[in-house]
Amino acid sequence: MPDPTATVTEVAGRRLRLTHLDRVLYPRTGYTKAAVLRYYTLVAPAMLPHLLGRPASFLRLPEGVEGQRFWAKRVPPGAPAWVTGLEVRHRQETMRQAVVADLPTLLWAANLGCLEFHVPQWRAEPRTHDRLIIDLDPGEGTSVVECCLVALTARELLAADGLRCWPKTTGSKGLHLSVPLVQTPAARVAGYARELARRLRQSLPDLVVDQMAKQLRAGRVFVDWSQNNSAKTTVVAYSLRARPEPTVSAPLEWREVTDCRRPEQLVFTADQVERRLREAGDPHAGLADPAQAGELPPNG
């Protein structure tokens, strides 16, 4: 029997069947599935370069942020033939994961209830990375304001090593700094990340912790260097977050990091990010430029 909630449309030459468009996925704000699809359509030109070539992990919430949530890595049965995939080894098995290569694939995933998109720091081959992530996670008693202070010091240390970084919010409480690299062995990237975290702790001993133990994080910012492990993934720039309101992992200008004095200054909803992108362009446009990719220092 035909689904009365379904709408069939064509996007970039691909046929898409969209369902439950009036379903409210964020009850606090009334943000619907149709609004989610519209948001991803508008930000796709800026978002897709961060997804291209990388196996995606989807956080799916088909009933919305107050319903059941689950991670999806495998390309699901019934996926359109045009959804591209990548065979990825996970511990004892290999699975085919979707690569979000275009707008139809992005909307196909969002229609499945995927609110969050996460990818690793590598493309195609996990043994070499083309991106370094500095994940700044505020402990109890701190906020994104303290993360900004750490981010500014991290930028200085990276610049001294000949590397550039681009900041974004996590869409939750912290910050990410993204560093484009030439293809570099994964173990070397992970080692550099660990050493950078140690250097940040030495530079800001009263503010930074680089150890995993949660009891050490109160009043400090944890530099989570482990995000550079090949098995780890990070939320993509412009992805929605599965929080009470439709907040976004939003790319930032460095002046916004420098000027941050209150946590709410760096909280952006989908509507705000749409407006920012329309009026000021994409702060992360340079991140996808191959010419910006740096090399780790010889001892890195």
UniProtKB/TrEMBL annotation:
InterPro entries the UniProt entry points to: LigD_pol_dom, NHEJ_LigD
Single Gene Ontology MF annotation: DNA ligase (ATP) activity
Domain of life of the source: Bacteria
UniProt keyword terms in alphabetical order: Ligase
Domain DNA ligase D polymerase: 32-284
Enzyme class, broadest EC rank: ligase
Claim: Ligase is one of the keywords in the record: yes
Keyword RNA-binding: no
Listed EC numbers: 6.5.1.1
Pfam families noted in UniProt: LigD_Prim-Pol
Record region (Disordered): 278-300
NCBIfam families assigned to the protein according to its UniProt record, in alphabetical order: ligD_pol
Name this polypeptide is given: Bifunctional non-homologous end joining protein LigD
Organism of this sequence: Kitasatospora kifunensis (Streptomyces kifunensis)
